[in-house]
Amino acid sequence: MAGTDRTKKSEAKQAPGPAVILVAPQLGENIGTAARAMLNFGLTDLRLVRPRDGWPNERARAAASGADVVIDNVQVFERTEDAITGLDYVIATTARARGMVKPILTPETAALRMREAFAGGGGAGLLFGPERTGLENDDVALADAIMMVPVNPAFASLNLAQCVLLMSYEWHKAGDRTAGERIDYQQTRPAKKEELIGFFEHLEGELDRFGFLKPPEKRPSMVRNLRNMFQRASLTEQEVRTLRGVVASLTRRYPKGEEPRE
Q: Which residue of 76, 124, 194, 242 has the fewest C-beta atoms within 10 A of its own C-beta?
């Protein structure tokens, strides 16, 4: 539960997502860890087909580590055909070719296809097979497409929770509008251009006074290099003020008109 913000618990009930359908899962612990992986990325529709150890399963609940909203609403079916009822687009996850003429998708593309299904007013689901054998061909035949993870071909097997986590993440990422990179400003803001220019001119003026920007013909390129260096730092307003204070402190013992000896 590390990192969980309990104040946002209500957000677990968010926009509909794909159903995760575990066909003949063997261990309650694997069902629980799959449920935990789902809720990490906002998925709550878990469907079980013929769970070996029956349902409910206390080992599954314990392994879910608090993903009770998933465990409490599990639906159990005897046949895969019944578990996919109400879905318009189903993807079968597999680690090997099946000799069937079906689109073979990467996880990223699979997530986009499911998003398209929901955008069209439909529903989507992901089929996962038993831990040891994977899906039967009859189950795969019910799917619209196959998803294969581009993994090391010499060691392609993923455990059930890993595969559920991977697809849950791809689903979430496909709808995420968070910037790929951001800076969290704490009691400050990005420096405005006029503040940066004021710092540049302050620094360059002192460097001129102390004889650093020489010879004259090299001064323009030296100034550009300095400015580019500080531009790359993405300085905040507070950092610019600090740097100006540093320059002022270093030069304070030499008032204007009292130039240091060379």
A: 194
- Read off the pLDDT of residues 189-242 as tens digits, 9 standing for 90 and up: 899 999 999 999 999 999 999 999 999 999 999 999 999 999 999 899 999 999
Tell me the CATH number at 220: 1.10.8
Identify whether the C-beta of residue 159 lies closer than 8 Å to the C-beta of residue 63. no
Question: So what's the pLDDT on residue 260?
Answer: 61
pTM for the structure as a whole: 0.71
Shared domain for 155 and 211, answered yes or no, is no
* Structural domain includes residue 4: no
Range of the domain at 218: 193-251
